[in-house]
Amino acid sequence: MSRGNKGLAALAALLLLLPLVLTNSYQYDVAIRIALNAIAVIALNLLIGYTGQISLGHAGFLGIGAYASGVLTAQFGWPPLLALPAGALAAGLLAFALARPILKLKGHYLAMATLGLGIIIAIVLTNEARYTGGPDGFAVPALGVAGLELAGEKAWYALVAGLLLLVTWLACNLIDSPAGRALQAIHGSEIAAQVAGVMTTRVKVRIFVVSAVVASIVGSLTAHYVAFVTPGLAGFFHSIELVTMVVVGGMASVFGSIVGAAILTVLPQLLSTFEGWETVVFGAILMGTMIFLPRGIVPTLAARLRKGAAR
């Protein structure tokens, strides 16, 4: 059994057994938020970790999904199962339209461009108060179909756990495919990838669109789960949280994405008594990871275990 299959089996077992130790609504809530963050971070890791294209405004796509679902269901009466793909389509089209000019940039120029995109989306969501409720946000109807609503932490856990397992499986298969090897070739050397016949621009645009669509779906689910949405979901700090999850868990590591999401979703709960210091702690963790674990937690530990087994 390959390492990817072993990891999937372990993840499936963990997701199946976890409800046995979750004893209250709060613990279920944390588990659901970890799964939602992990789904978004896996897709973002495909862009950052595997392809080497930084994005500091990715939370903007979560905001598009959340507000599309919220506005279309609350103000226009759309069923959630139509509003959610509509938001994903909007995010995908925006990402496709902007990917070519943005992804031509390199290094800090690319980082600044994606940062600007995220800020613009957050500002639009804040200022269009007629539809978005402005800075205060607005209530979002429950996720449901034909009068049946998804209610209760156990039902939501089953939904997001299944979706996390599916996204993890798809990501692992993508990485092991020729398309995944093209992503990693671009990260290694874009010029060498072009010489090898990889259509680098097309590949980068596609993975940018995929990561945006997945982020939008996560945003929609988050809005329906929380039953409320504010511009903070699309804000700069949330984008930095997502990037930090990628770096801490391990760039170019699908299962590292899950670990990073788990750690940095639980951490704010533990720091709730130190209100206002979360940003400082996030920065310190990011600095410490880059200094002592530059490859992230999972790749570093995996390398050490393999080295120890080889002795």
Automatic annotation (TrEMBL):
Residues that span the membrane, as ranges: 33-52, 59-78, 84-102, 109-126, 155-175, 207-230, 242-267, 279-298
Molecular functions (GO terms): branched-chain amino acid transmembrane transporter activity
Keywords: Cell membrane, Membrane, Transmembrane, Transmembrane helix
Cellular localization per UniProt: Cell membrane
Membrane topology recorded in Swiss-Prot or TrEMBL: Multi-pass membrane protein
Keyword Iron-sulfur set for record: no
Keyword Transferase on entry: no
UniProt-listed PANTHER family: BRANCHED AMINO ACID TRANSPORT SYSTEM PERMEASE, HIGH-AFFINITY BRANCHED-CHAIN AMINO ACID TRANSPORT SYSTEM PERMEASE
Protein name: Branched-chain amino acid ABC transporter permease
Organism: Ramlibacter monticola
